[in-house]
Predict the structure.
Amino acid sequence: MNSQSNAPAGERIGLIDGAKGVGIFLVVLGHNTVFSLHLADAKQAIYLFHMPLFFFLSGLTFKLGVPLKEMIYRRWRTLLVPYFAVALASLLPGAILGGVGSVAVGMLGILYGTGHTLRFTALWFLPCLFLACVVVHMLLGGSRKETAHTQSRFVLLFAAIAATAIGLLLVGSGRFSAWPFEDVMGRPLGAPWSADLVPIAMGCLIAGMTLQRSDWLSRYAASAWLLPCAIAVLAALIYVGESVDLNYRRISLPLLFPFGVLGGIAATLGVTGLLLRFPPLSRLARYVGTLSLIVLLFHMPIQRRIVDLLSAGSFLPASVAAAFGASLTIAVIAALDAWVIRPLPLSRWIFHPSGR
């Protein structure tokens, strides 16, 4: 990490925001019931990498050279404040219908903070990322600004590989997907705040850190060969039976997991590179990328209603209906952000701590 990137800072930020926009669309699409039912292989291809992708993208902007307390405060503001706000709000229907007992169970689920203890499953990502950031900073960071430049790419790469290997061993052991780490329906709970997934999250986060000061992203993202090669890798993995669902602590072929993550990251960057060639699509992707946190927080209940409406007498092919439903979900959330969240001081403080 000794050489400066040749890419202008604005170009890199645009690429990262665009990749977040493509990635969050894939997350929403992967949670679309029409897509899951009719395009199971495509859904599974998305699941090979969609959550690791966002750990990786977080690593591209993760800074070691700040005091630990400052880093924890920043991550608390950007990750945990929205997490608790939405998770607590999701308890309101249960509080009205189920009374105090329902609220108490829901509160315990929020404090535990994994996919099957939360009303909105996707929220598990936020406390897991928070823990990963804290552990990475404690292991690799320091209190001096110079620390950001002292870790070589070799050290970071070794740390990424080691963390991922530990994470795969943890998931493969089944320790956190069997009793007492399962709910009454037999679904795996994992450790609190998905601590058992933190090593995998760390591996992806540190992998992103290795490219912070590299021009690789801007140089290869729009290359003609990156996207088809990445799609070929994902297709091959689906063909041999690779299946990943981190929420269910399931990785069918652990040795192939890194290839799925790398293939998915490359595919996302390849699509983003193509979109950035066309200004209208570039602006759209980057705009959606700036809303990725809000889309993650709200897409599940909104898309559920949209899918129900579209399914009533729909004549569209499944792929078109799924893509339209996911796009409409993001459009509704964008309108909610522009007309409700941003104008209100409290919601703006919760969901836009950076002011973007």
Q: What stands out?
A: Residues 1-6, 143-149 have pLDDT under 50 and may be disordered. The chain is about 70% helix and 0% strand.
